[in-house]
Amino acid sequence: MIGRLDLDARQQSVAARGWWRSHKWWLLRRTSQIAAMAVFMLGPWAGIWLVRGNFASSDVLGVLPLTDPYILLQSLAAGHGLALTALVGAGLIVALYLIAGGRAYCSWVCPVNVVTDSAHWLREKTGLTRDRKLDRRTRVVILAATLLAAFLTGRIAWEFVNPVSMMQRGLITGVGLGWGLVLAVFLLDLFVARRAWCSHLCPVGAFYGVVGRASLTRVAATRRAACTDCAACFNICPEPHVIAPALKGKGSPVIRSGDCLNCGACIDSCPVDVFRMTHRFAGVEEGAAPARRRAVTPRRAPAAGPAR
Amino acid sequence: MAGPRRITRRAALGEVARVGGAACLAGLSLTALVSMASRADARALRPPGALPEDDFLSACVRCGLCVEACPYDTLSLAEWGDEAAVGTPFFTPRDVPCFMCKDVPCARACPTGALDREIPDIRQADMGVAVLVGHETCLNYKGLNCSICHRVCPIRNEAITLEKGEINGRAVVLPVVHSDKCTGCGTCEKHCVTGHASIRVLPRDLGLGGEGRNRAGRAT
Predict the structure, then answer these.
(1) Which site in A71, B141, B164, B167 is 20 to 30 Å from A114, CA atoms measured?
(2) Do domains B44-125 and B128-209 have the same CATH topology?
(3) CA-wise closest residue to A260 among A107, A137, A33
(4) Residue A303: what pLDDT?
(5) Does domain B128-209 have CATH number 3.30.70.20?
(6) Do residue B86 and residue A160 have CB atoms under 8 angstroms apart?
């Protein structure tokens, strides 16, 4: 039943542009995720201390403090005064994601993303279609709820259940019952709803989504005139609703929604190179008139270009 | 999808109420869960310089920098089922006590102030207080001169002293803890020779009685 390694959504691109170009961003992002975990694990597991701590707060080479701004926000809601080191660390992280794209955290750093992507892959391969529809805004509600709970309990509330931190800690300092939660997320994504955790429930992603509304690095459908309506990007995208305004709208081709993970899956999957990893001020590329359509059969007539 | 979405005031208010209600409900559920899960077991002690437990849980981001700073592997981050709230640093003195490093590297590593990084001296640390709980099992109470707790105590002859006493007409020397000197490092608990330590480090509020009001309302 499980056939090819890659998802059906990439097939057209693989046929048109080859395997490597169809997996470029996917490979880069997995490399980044593994590297991010590895530098934290090198210390405790191999005694090579490039970075100390974990994603909640860390100390890079003994000079650079980094702190998770969402956890710090909860700490603030819980009534703890700000400490300078943590504040500087959180500021640096916010600045980083204002440049790299808010939810780049989710797709380029967070280890749970590997788990949920695997669940999604297995889901597609085994043809599991059961999808209990969740509202994408649920995560914002949960984000608000965690801050409320932090305020009421005087504790950093979400950290009592956060599977994201559980998994990071599990990898960095050893295994514990926290893995049960990670497994729960995997099963949720596999059996209950499509992309349930990362795209609907996780308040960490929702927080970075807020940062991402103003972030610099963005994906844009700069050559949208070439679009053949094959829907590969919509099929592969974890947040498909972010694509339409940029690809089919008349305004800016930039995907501006904070929900976009900057994962580059649309770039990988597009057989005619519509998308680019660029910045939020990018415009439509001129001279990108309806292009060569190698080995691609459009399902409908091509979308109207700017000429109409 | 042309033009901005138009919604009526009624729909907008309804939406706000729904989302707000859901957020409150979820927030209260999480509140209940957190207050249930954040009772630290008396056996779990916090690193030196830790804020009082309630403040500690509002400040500690569970990054493990203190754990990695400890040269003796005393500290660890709690996992589910451990004595302390999940992810927070603690130590179990019967396994590995605090070795009372002079420069307190764990507290210095804390980025959030959950541990006081300005702590001037490890002797000011207040991880708990040793309490001789086993008056029926402690060998000194049985008339032997074990006194191992007294001998291993790093604050020698100050935190634990040996005092002459008399039990059932027999002269004994008894280890006596002085809470103003004891930091709660747990070296005594670690080395106590009885199967279950007769002297144990407890969080201060448990280990020490204290002034307050008795049930008649009189100060005691």
Answers:
(1) A71
(2) yes
(3) A107
(4) 47
(5) yes
(6) yes
- Domains of chain A and CATH, by start: 18-211 (no CATH), 214-279 (3.30.70.20)
Place of tokens 């006081």: B116
- Please answer whether residues B42 and B203 qualify as being in contact, where contact means their C-beta atoms are separated by less than 8 angstroms: yes
Q: Which two tokens stand for residue B80?
A: 């589910």
Q: How is chain B split into domains, by residue range?
A: 44-125, 128-209
Rounded to an integer, what distance in angstroms lies between the CA atom of residue B150 and that of residue A175?
Answer: 37
Q: Which among A254, A259, A256, A262 has a CA at the least distance from the CA of A224?
A: A254
Is B109 in contact with A172 (Cβ distance < 8 A)? no
CA dist A215 and A94 (Å) reads 10
Please write the tens of the pLDDT for every residue from A184-214: 999 999 999 999 999 999 999 999 999 999 9
Residues of A in contact with B30 (CB under 8 A): 145-146, 149, 157-158, 160-161
CB atoms within 10 A of CB B54: 14
Q: What is the mean pLDDT of residues A72-93?
A: 92
Rounded Cα gap, residues A253 and A275, in angstroms: 9
Q: Collect all residues of chain B within an 8 Å Cβ-Cβ radius of residue A244.
A: 1
Question: Across the interface, which of B34, B35, B55 has its CB nearest the CB of A80?
Answer: B55
* pTM score: 0.85
**Closest residue in chain A to residue B115, using alpha carbons only:** A83
What percent of chain A stands above pLDDT 90?
Answer: 65
Structure tokens at A43: 């210390």
Render the burial of A285-302: b for 16+ CB within 10 Å, e for the rest: beebeebeeeebeeeeee
Q: Which residue has the tokens 């993303």?
A: A113
Task: Report the CATH fold assignment for B44-125.
Answer: Alpha-Beta Plaits (3.30.70)
- Which residues contact residue B141 at a Cβ distance below 8 angstroms, ignoring those fewer than 6 apart? B134, B135, B167, B172, B174
State the ipTM, two decimals.
0.82
